[in-house]
Amino acid sequence: MTDRAQTPKPAQPATEQSSDKLWGGRFDGPTNAFVEEFTASVQFDRRLYAQDIEGSIAHATMLAAVGVLTNDERDRIVEGLAAIRTDIEAGRFTWSIALEDVHMNIESALTARIGEVGKKLHTARSRNDQVATDIRLYLRGEIDRLTGMLDRLLNALIDLAEREADTVLPGFTHLQAAQPVSFGHHLLAWFEMLLRDRERLRDCRKRTDSLPLGAGALAGTTFPIDRALTAELLGFTRICENSLDAVADRDFAIEFTACGALMMVHFSRMAEEMVLWSSQQFGFIELADAFCTGSSMMPQKKNPDVPELVRGKSGRVIGHLIALLTLMKSQPLAYNKDNQEDKEPLFDTVDTLRGCLRAFGDLIPTMQVRRDRMREAARAGFTTATDFADYLVRLGIPFRDAHAVVGAAVRIAVERGCELKDLSLAELQALDGRIGAEVFGALDVDAALAARDHRGGTAPGRVRAACAQARLRLGTEAAH
Ligand code: ARG
């Protein structure tokens, strides 16, 4: 390809039609072979064949309804398109780079199949409004599929959270053991993050669900089209209200990618925790063998490849977001060929999200929870020191003073290499005479959990209630 590009063939002598392109009328010579390949998009936009055909069928149906096509012409076009769809799905369709993109590949196949009438399909339409329509149809469908997969994961999180409501886990800040929390509570934090992602996806669906067809190349069409009918046929709730904007903007795709990037950032945080938790040092969970791989050199290894890959793949989607924003920036209205570059980042965002949703949806329900290890870790690191201070506050000691007393107790325990509960009552009373034996109750991790008994708190009863609530919220969301 490159060789030919550097030494383009001399322009051919003009023949009856010197360019064999669908748009070749005003051209004298053929396209440079490298340029043909460079400008083509069929290599990747053939993925839109189903939406392209669906859009064309709706367009032809509308054209017949307003009298631009006869019913017979419409029927032949619709039949031809349906047959092409069958061919594509059976792998019998030959895609041609010379025909540039999915739209012209299908249109020329139509004319080859049904004859002259196929050439009427493109009346009152441009590839500019056609491609914008295809992408919106595609993305709308993908958002629905992704939402379904997300629902499965969200349900799995609730199930696991319910099962692990009583499981004590050290909660961390700065990755230092901070306070004990219910493992179920931690899982519900993941649920909240992803539920917001779901909301964002559904919200961006609204702006995706709008019909560009009718905008033509940029200025609309001179034919008496019925855009409301086309919208209805394609199930669009809205119609793009300005023909220039309809073909020019891809903000819906950017928005989707932004939702995706944020979701991937959430996934990467979940993944990071799974990687940490499954290490020997933490030992909080064990990932099922089916989701891990070994090392070619170190026989003892069981690596958490799946969460690591999910974590790594967040980089791609963040990159796609930046790519799409940059692609759109400073483009003059209306359509520019730049927009052809929207597809690969968008497709890869969809594929990546789908892969990660599938991975987590399968992996999370099968991970083994090492409750004993979590409990042991929750008890180490003086995680109930705040509870100790709160106990002193209830005795009437101001919190700042209580903080200092507990700090002194921690120092003693550190020196001794023991836990707070291993200090004697006499030692504690030496720090403050008001301390009684009930203090040991406050130092217990289960008591610490149970004491945080308010909405949004980690008491196991609250976690179970939050699970029930989460199911209801998901049910309501799922209806939208
Ligand atoms: N392949 C093109 C794209 O993806 C289709 C629209 C081309 N329009 C044009 N005027 N060249 O954007």
Strand line-up across the major sheet = 1-2
Poorly predicted regions are 1-17
Q: What is the tally of helical segments? A: 20
Q: What is the number of E strands?
A: 6
Summarize the biggest pleated sheet: 2 strands, antiparallel
Strand content: under 5%
The run of helices and strands is: HHHHHHHEEHEHEHHEHHEHHHHHHH
The CATH architecture of the largest domain can be given as Up-down Bundle
CATH topology annotation of the largest domain:
Fumarase C, Chain A, domain 2
What is the structural class? mainly alpha
CATH homologous superfamily descriptor of the largest domain: Fumarase/aspartase (Central domain)
Helical fraction: 55-70%
Distance between the termini: 49 Å
Ions, cofactors and other ligands present here are: arginine
Secondary structure layout plus pairing:
Layout: H1 2-6, H2 33-39, H3 42-45, H4 49-65, H5 71-89, H6 102-114, H7 127-163, E1 168-173, E2 176-182, H8 183-208, E3 210-211, H9 227-234, E4 238-239, H10 243-248, H11 251-277, E5 285-286, H12 305-328, H13 343-366, E6 368-369, H14 371-379, H15 385-394, H16 399-416, H17 425-431, H18 439-442, H19 445-451, H20 460-478
Parallel strand pairs: 3-4
Antiparallel strand pairs: 1-2, 5-6
Helix pairs in contact: 4-5, 4-7, 4-9, 5-6, 7-8, 7-13, 7-20, 8-11, 8-20, 11-12, 11-13, 12-13, 15-16
Bound molecules: arginine.
